[in-house]
Design goal:
The complex is a heterodimer of chains A (about 325) and B (about 325). Chain A has about 325 residues and is an all-alpha fold. Chain A contains eleven helices and one strand. Chain B is α+β, with helices and mostly antiparallel strands. Chain B starts with a helix and ends in a 5-residue tail after the last helix. Classes of the chains: A mainly alpha (about 325), B alpha+beta (about 325). Bound molecules: iron/sulfur cluster (2 copies).
């Protein structure tokens, strides 16, 4: 039995501080996911010999990763010191780990685009052409290996904070984000690539959307009512509702009408828009949860009283007379 | 796993973990809010010594005498003011008594304070007088000078990607202004809402950079007392070796309880708490959330190994999804 806990605060002011991050960060999380999913589509297209899908996905990956990187730099307090991220490798900092993942993925995505462009520019039998043919599979494998960490680490980035709704989401959020990344990248492929080559993308759209939606449901349920509240209310609530409609609609469209170029394009747009809404919804819900002291104090008070009622008293930050 | 664990949770010596060989005794504050008079000398002394710029607009916040608001990039000591009526005093006394009944275990090494004893003698006299004049006033003012906790497991330091935040030989946590690139991660990670990125135009010093209390790193290295503790006219803010600070806090709580002030309790300094103990110890007269402090903070990185594990599984799932999309079926 947990005794009823009373909520108290200091003039209603926040206890923890929200991250000083603007729209650049959720935009980056979307773009990073889009790049990662495109990297996988590009690699798969190499394996299945789908040249247009391969080319488009490779260009999409580099464009998204470059735009995402710019968004990250723009959000820094000191953009000119962006390279300080590379001063050290720090496992306790998901942002440090992520910076290295992003750089590695960016390098392979860049190499992939270079070899792609080189196809028409250099003769396969020249020295440069031979180098290109060696580099191409390296770029493919590299992009495929660094894509999943790129899409997943952003969930750890948000969760490894004192922001209540982000931290409590840590078990499911990586699955939400990788599903969303795959769905978004598949959506972009549906938009850019003729339907004769988008069979795998259509399947990926459906699988990605299904994983994202299932993980999101589970996350909202597992999190505890108080901390999940910001996911249902206000702007973040609307964004996440929109995300569900767009993602499911897009996936259904891709599955049923994906053979039709314009229907596929509309479905693709819906999938990408759904992914944007997911990222902004989760992001904004967290910011809201940090600003309202209730989301920090109530769950902490509850777990403290629960431990105390079980006789666990040695680990409280507040101690009485001894 | 074991390695991760010692680094991320539980009792430890942070300066030694950070690789200091000629480490000093861990330094800390003991802020005794029961003798704070709310003069804000600490706020002012801190701003002067550290040359902190103006924090926000000069607003009246409508929160008693507190027009500062909270700790932040340009406020490293913040005096909170709470006005309470008689029933709240009774509740606080009750919750403090309950803490004793819970049988809190002893924390830290028992150390006999070496101070001159006048603080405690004075406080005891004060408490006795209050008791003899009638136990429960119908109004009280709580005043408390908040500051960075210099956590044993400091989330701000753990998540900093540039290495701008570092652990000093005194066990404290300090930002290197010229390294920080203003990513703001530490701001979201601190469980106490202490550190903040400084806003302002280009004329403001260290704008765009994370800022917080350094426990006057530039003073304590020269055997000087931090500016706030030096300026405090009531000795509400004490500075010294952390185990000494903890012992003083214990002694002071005992003195207050002896005189019927069971609302007194210690906040921080328990190495078994969620942040592995804080370098700043407080004596509070009500529940922590009344002062804007978290009642059960846990350093977010305590869950980091599990977070990475979940993310790793998700990454594998992402690969499998893509592989599934490409094998078999039509093109
Ligand atoms: S209180 Fe916050 S800013 Fe201070 S050391 Fe702990 S985590 Fe860092
Ligand atoms: S804002 Fe500065 S001190 Fe804080 S985590 Fe980023 S680089 Fe480190």
């Amino acid at each position: 039995m947990v005794p009823d806990v009373k909520f108290d605060s200091y003039y209603g002011r926040q206890v923890v501080k929200p991250a000083p991050w603007e729209a650049d960060i959720p935009a980056y999380i979307f773009l990073g996911g889009l790049a990662a999913g495109s990297g996988l589509l590009g690699a798969g297209a190499v394996a299945r010999d789908l040249p247009t899908l391969r080319r488009n996905s490779r260009y999409a990956a580099i464009a998204a990763v470059a735009a995402g990187g710019l968004a990250l730099v723009r959000d820094l307090g000191k953009p000119r010191r962006a390279l300080n991220m590379m001063r050290t490798v720090k496992l306790t900092s998901p942002m440090s780990v992520g910076s290295w993942i992003l750089s590695a993925f960016g390098a392979f995505a860049g190499l992939a685009v270079a070899t792609e462009a080189g196809r028409h520019l250099v003769d396969d039998d020249s020295t440069l052409g031979r180098a290109r043919r060696v580099a191409d599979p390296v770029a493919t494998v590299g992009s495929a290996l660094f894509a999943p960490p790129l899409a997943a680490y952003t969930a750890v980035l948000l969760a490894d904070t004192a922001t209540p709704t982000w931290h409590e989401s840590y078990r499911e959020l990586p699955f939400v984000f990788v599903g969303s990344a795959n769905a978004a990248a598949a959506g972009l492929a549906l938009l850019t690539t003729p339907s004769s080559q988008t069979g795998p993308a259509r399947k990926l759209a459906v699988i990605g959307a299904a994983v994202e939606m299932a993980a999101l449901e589970r996350m909202e349920r597992a999190m505890g009512d108080v901390v999940a509240e910001p996911l249902h209310q206000g702007r973040p609530g609307s964004l996440l509702r929109a995300s569900k409609i767009l993602t499911l609609g897009g996936a259904l469209g891709a599955a049923a009408l994906g053979g039709n170029r314009s229907a596929a394009a509309v479905s693709g747009l819906a999938l990408m828009a759904g992914s944007v809404c997911t990222r902004f919804g989760v992001f904004e819900a967290g910011i809201h949860s940090a600003k309202d002291p209730r989301y920090t104090v109530t769950p902490q008070r509850e777990r403290l009283e629960r431990r105390r009622s079980e006789g666990v008293t040695h680990d409280s930050i507040t101690t009485g007379r001894q | 796993m074991g390695f991760w664990h010692n680094q991320l949770t539980g009792p430890t010596d942070p300066a030694r973990d950070a690789g200091w060989e000629d480490e000093q005794p861990r330094k800390g504050f003991f802020t005794d809010t029961s003798i704070c008079i709310g003069c804000k000398a600490c706020e002012v002394a801190c701003k002067e010594w550290n040359a902190l710029p103006q924090d926000g607009d000069l607003d009246l916040l409508g929160s008693s005498y507190d027009n500062t608001g909270s700790l932040g990039a340009s406020t490293w000591r913040h005096v909170a003011f709470i006005e309470q009526s008689g029933d709240r005093i009774e509740e606080a006394r009750e919750s403090g008594r309950k803490l004793v009944d819970l049988g809190m275990p002893a924390i830290g090494a028992p150390v006999t304070p070496s101070g001159n004893g006048t603080d405690t003698a004075f406080a005891t006299a004060q408490a006795t007088a209050a008791r003899e004049l009638g136990t429960l006033p119908d109004f009280r003012w709580l005043m408390s000078s908040d500051v960075c906790k210099h956590c044993t497991h400091a989330a701000c330091l753990d998540v900093c990607p540039t290495g701008a935040l570092f652990r000093t030989e005194f066990g404290t946590v300090v930002v290197q202004d010229d390294v920080c690139n203003g990513c703001g991660y530490c701001v979201a990670a601190c469980p106490f809402g202490v550190i903040e990125r400084r806003d302002g135009d280009d004329t403001v010093k260290n704008v765009g950079v994370a800022q917080k209390c350094t426990l006057c790193y530039d003073r304590i290295g020269h055997d000087q007392t931090p500016a706030c503790a030096q300026a405090c006219p009531t000795t509400s803010i004490k500075f010294g070796d952390l185990d000494e600070m903890q012992a003083q806090a214990q002694e002071r709580v005992a003195a207050l309880h002896d005189n019927g002030f069971t609302e007194a309790r210690v906040y921080g300094g328990n190495e078994h708490d969620g942040v592995g103990g804080t370098g700043s110890v407080f004596l509070l007269l009500d529940e922590p959330e009344v002062y804007g402090l978290p009642p059960d903070p846990v350093v977010t990185t305590a869950d980091l190994p599990d977070m990475y594990r979940k993310a790793g599984m998700a990454a594998v799932a992402m690969l499998v999804m893509a592989a599934g999309a490409f094998v078999g079926g039509r093109k």
